[in-house]
Amino acid sequence: MLHPPELEHLHRPDPDARPVVEMRNVTAGYNKSKVLQDVDLNIMPGDFVGLLGPSGSGKTTLLRVILGAVDVQKGEVRVNEKPVRGRNNRAGYVPQLETIDWNFPVTVEETVMMGRTMANPWLPWYRKHEKELAYDMMQRLGIADLAKRHIRQLSGGQQQRVFLARALASSPDLLLLDEPTSGVDLKTRDDVMHLLHDLNHAGVTIVLTTHEINAVAVHLPRIVCLNGSIVADGPPHRVITPHILLEVYGAEMPVIQYHGMTLVAESAHFWIDRNGGEPLATIPDESHREPVIPHVHPTTANVPEHHHHHGNSA
Amino acid sequence: MALLEPFEFGFFVRAIIAAFLVGGLCAFMGTYIVLRSMSYIGHGLAHAIFGGAVVSSAMSFNFFVGATLWGFLSALLIAWTTRKNPIGSDAAIGIVTTASFALGIAIISRKHGFTHDFEAALWGSVLAVERADIIAIAVVSIAVAVVFFFAYKMFLFNTFDADVARFYGIPTAWMDAIFALMLAGTVVVSMRVLGVTMIAAAVVIAPIVARLLTNSFVKMTVLSTLIGIMCSVTGIYMSYFINVSSGASVVLLSAVVFVAALGWSRIRRHLSRSPAEEPGLSRLPSGSVD
Lengths: 314, 290
Prior knowledge:
The complex is a heterodimer.
Chain A: E1 21-29, E2 36-43, E3 48-52, H1 59-66, E4 71-79, E5 82-83, E6 91-94, H2 108-113, H3 128-140, H4 156-169, E7 174-177, H5 186-201, E8 205-210, E9 222-226, E10 230-234, H6 236-239, H7 242-249, E11 255-258, E12 261-264, H8 268-274, H9 298-301
Parallel strand pairs in A: 3-8, 3-9, 6-7, 7-8
Antiparallel strand pairs in A: 1-2, 1-4, 4-5, 9-10, 11-12
Helix pairs in contact in A: 3-4, 4-5
Chain B: H1 10-35, H2 39-58, H3 63-84, H4 89-110, H5 114-123, H6 131-150, H7 152-160, H8 162-167, H9 172-194, H10 196-213, H11 217-242, H12 246-271
Helix pairs in contact in B: 1-6, 1-9, 1-10, 1-11, 2-3, 2-4, 2-9, 2-10, 3-4, 3-9, 5-9, 6-9, 9-10, 10-11, 10-12, 11-12
């Protein structure tokens, strides 16, 4: 459905490919606080990674570290083998729709073109090929007809596409999305996730943050569970387990495997009470009722195969 | 002819030229100020710069350079106060600019001879406009036009969403500093024509009127500038006949234009079948129309 040729250069099927993002022993935060501690993470070309964790677990901070917008207090961050320094990054960022000023007088086209700002920063207009690139991107995302519309005059899904197009127009090496499904309706959420899967199949490396386990995380090929540091990293069937969820969320969450689907009861106590106290699925044993450090360790939960994973093979 | 009578006076011709440039300059800068919801900073900076003007004068320092630097430093101080302390920007503006204004008033009240000179700065006076003022206004206008022409794309992104603009490589801290410097310059050169107390309105009203009439950023900028020029020139021309202070005359005329534009946009929205198709400032919570 969606194979933008412009994105082909992002696609690197080479098994010896170098990571797009390399984080070594990274501790980062704001002022003196440490939001992330000792994070080791590799993001390979073609990866589609979901950062999962509760509020304050460092999901957004991790995105900002990749963008070079957070002080790295310890460790090393490399994007495309170059140390991240302020604003030399090559990442396309899609903000949460809730943070957009919808009264700002810009059209869809003007918004998408913003992605090209730094291509020729001192030129007051855009070059012809840049306009064509942006138009092509809009066409492929199905919003070309809306180019002259004000950004407020769109549906939620269309709005999300505008900001995706803006990010893609900057010809990024990877796409970073902050909670792309938060605050949108069910249909928009599914549309957005389909679109992202299509983009990933076309070779775009994607990292998104989410707090929705069932609706978003379990559908991604790779999940990184965060709680200040990386608790687990791997495909959903390896990562979405009661033990890991307990460590990430500090709450018991039964996990159900049903016809190959992974379902998580995100409010376990309520759910169990409603069933007369009889749990219907696996929950951690009683010893985990107290605050505990489970036996899961990043290294054990880490799945080495993900280094060979590529978007087109997913 | 009676209507052309004021143009027989050199001071009035100077005032009209100054009004033309100041009206356009303030309204142009105002577009960015209004869109970043910084309306209060124009008001605050004008007061802070009044303090700087008095200090420059007391120290026999060049008025334009001294007051502009003072305003720029005030803006930086506000930014620093907000960043390094748990203080909101509105509170920081209130403290820094009012303290600066108070300093100016304190110096004036100690030196009685000053009082009359600075009345023009407070309320605006066409009589006060000199050749040097016009040159200063022209210099700032040209500087602003050149900077915004070449850095248009970066200013647009930075104004739309400064946080995200940073992620796209826009040097937002520099943009903000340059903007503060240009705003300080704008306020300094506008002060004698419009008056400290009236500048905020000259900066805010024209862009808001333009916003009511269009949904396009470029059109809004152009419209705002034109409306600013029109209100400023007409207002000062009128002040000659109705014998009202020039700043007050300009602001009252702008307010009338604002009310008319608001009425027009409301009528148009009523007549229109799909309200969201029309430009304006209606606040839709979800940001979506369906």
